[in-house]
Amino acid sequence: MSLAELAYLNGELTELHSAMVSIDDRAFLFGDGIYEVVRSYDRRLFGLDGHIDRLVRSAAAIELKLPVDAVGFKELVRTVYKKSEITDALVYIQVSRGAEPRNHLFSLDLKPAVLITVRHLPDYLFSDHMDPLTAITVPDGRWDMCHIKSTSLLANILAKHKAREAGVDEAIFVRRNGLVTEAYASNVFIVQEETVLTHPADNRILGGITRGFVLDLCAKQDLRTVEREFSRDELLSAGEVFVTNSVYEIRPVVRVDGQQIGDGQPGRVTGMLLQAYRALTADQ
């Protein structure tokens, strides 16, 4: 029998379907909250320190006082995850500013609401194959604080919807000046003649935890990396394109806006990095 999926909400641990959030919760009313998603491998939470450290930075950026410090939060997540007994899971962590009658101005003494859910990893994520993706580019009209992992994700939702309408997998944001930032839920890398490029981790993108691991792996593989802005034209002419996030790791992109990338197959550098990343997840 499948192990129960769990929810921790403000100190109470229940089965997932039993958890209920207040209709006055500010994350529900305003998107006034922050979140993280952690993947576990064989009962080990991968990259938890990086995720919680980023959660702390996001909280500070929106002036949300967390109920516990980073060390306490990591221990809480580990405790909730262990209760689930799920071997390979997705652990969702959300902190809302709290619940009170709707008002743009929040009370300074409002108690944050903490939600942690543990769900089974979807079946499609167990594949050992480097399934290629197709993508479109979409205008990047988001705010200038994308380094905050906010629950307010309407622009990302609409970008993914446009990808679905176009019959592709991914949506890649491009600013008015023609520069690529990131995809709707992942960071974007391109490979130009053995050099791996990605957008700098500034306020235009969310600096992904997997992005950081990939840059470290590039150094270990003696691959040159450059963190700089690059254009849509450079994206389309790249030898390889891949995207990264904590859920689906590293995925090659073989077609963008109907144009083939490289030879139309997952590239050598992408495959090498995916193999190294999976070895890393197995070791930790």
Word description of this protein:
The chain is an alpha+beta fold and 284 residues long. The chain has two domains: 6-123, Aminotransferase class 4, branched-chain amino acid transferase, N-terminal domain (D-amino Acid Aminotransferase, Chain A, domain 1), CATH 3.30.470.10; 133-283, D-amino Acid Aminotransferase, Chain A, domain 2 (Alpha-Beta Barrel), CATH 3.20.10. The longest helix is centred in the last third of the chain and has 16 residues, at 268-283. The mean pLDDT is 96. Helix content is 28%, strand content 30%. It has seven helices and 16 strands. The strands form two sheets. Strands 7, 8, 9, 10, 11, 12, 13, 14, 15 and 16 form a ten-stranded mixed sheet that branches.
